[in-house]
Please model this.
Amino acid sequence: MKKTFSVGFTLLLVIASIAYPGPPAEAQGTVARTYKPNWKSIDTRPIPEWFNEAKFGIFVVWGPYSVPAWVDKGYAEWYGQRMRRPKDPAHPFHIKNYGADFKYEQFAPMFKAELWDPDFWADLIEKSGAKYVSFTVNYHDGFAMWPTKYSKTAETDKWNSMVVGPKRDVAGEFEAACTRKGIKFGIYYSLYEWFHPLWNADKERFAIEWMHPKFKEVVSKYRPWYIFLDGEWDADYKTWHSEELAAWLYNESPVKDYVVANDRWGKTRGKHGDVFSSEYGGAEGWADHPWEENRGMGRSYGYNRNENVYDYNSAKELIDMLTKCAMNGGNLLLDIGPTGDGRIPVIMQERLLQIGEWLKVNGEAIYGTRRWKVTNEGTVRYTTKGTDVYVICTEWPGQKLVLETPKLAADATVTMLGCPEKIGWRMQGGSLHIDVPKLTIDKLPCRHAWVFKLPGAA
Model:
């Protein structure tokens, strides 16, 4: 089996190398380096600059679990596991609605994606202001969203989107749609697969004989800019042979010059990886390492029919989360969970458009910014870019904004993003006093988080 996989994948790489034209233009000129298969060497790889410039990405969690789309609370994409646990509320729900003999694999033919329009998705994501996506090509259930021979559970060998359900190359179509819109296409990839017989029999053999070649195939075929690894926690990185896989990714793969991967290589979170990942965290991040907060708009990543409007974050809450990530030097990866037939729920569409409207006005204070020497003062948050400092007011500051930290030269011109009004200011008693323009509601540049730009602030 190992020999067959190796030969087959070698042929795949040869074909890919012939077709591959080289890295994208913005990745050209990267200094070539060789990394040894150990963390000491791999951790010296500098993160490609595009990631810290992007700041905002969209997570898309979608698969057969989007058909039942139900848990009492929490992650609906875990339905395939939770339906099997007698004490879990998903168990009686499953029996009542689908029957005791209904296998999880039987959801795949129901996952038809008959209303899916990848161009609409990409257009909506572009309008949100997001610069990259992370798309679930391989979730914990092992269902592959592309045509692949690595497609199996204990119940079926028809376990990818080309042979069952949509009967389409879902990853390929979505990648093409994102590329047309200038959005960097990335993937979510679960290392383990709940229902694969080899995973349950021999974890190390599963890693070498199944996970590695399957991962290399999807990376070589769709060339993602970003890789969100997950499902690694049941084994350490030695069992996963993650150092060898990371060395392949950064030395040999067609995305080696520009790919960014997170820190979920096998009990390595917060230790190894281009990006450290925070999941439903406080967006505090890491001061000395690139990081990303990832979360849903509600309490689930996959669509959960059991959530209602009160479970979803408001536009203000999501914008505040984005600004908090930016002030602490991190990115926000915000999830949407489409329905089984391929629709993005309208409330999620609305939130994306609301964030996009805010970024049209205030994106200058987010994209390409870094953590400043002080991150916040009360309801005020700071970001910086070049010699400019941005003051993000999460609440309307009233008639006067008084800041203790920034110091300005006498000839500096303070502006409010999206507002043509002249802004008066003065240094008084060591504090910066900014005169807030008197604006009627219809003249406000945005509805949430107003931004003042301070040139040359010290």
Notes: Residues 30-365 form a domain with the TIM Barrel fold (CATH 3.20.20.80). Residues 37 and 244 are 5 Å apart (CA to CA). Residues 1-20 have pLDDT under 50 and may be disordered.
